Amino acid sequence: MNNFTQKRLELLSDIEKMTKAIRDETDWYIASFHERDEVKRKVARTISEEKVKAGTRLARKMYEKYK
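Request: output the structure for the sequence above.
Response:
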């Protein structure tokens, strides 16, 4: 397998992982809206927002890696 094909497969694998992580986090964030306890709801949203920021940093890093 040549280097280009290997990098392409790695990129596709990373995209798949990111897509799954985004779906999971989106589901979790939406579920936080149904939480009746205000403190738990705020904590859930804060955690979700921090995870989104971390995911954004990871996506930028991956973009730079495959650029």
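Residues 3-66 form one domain.
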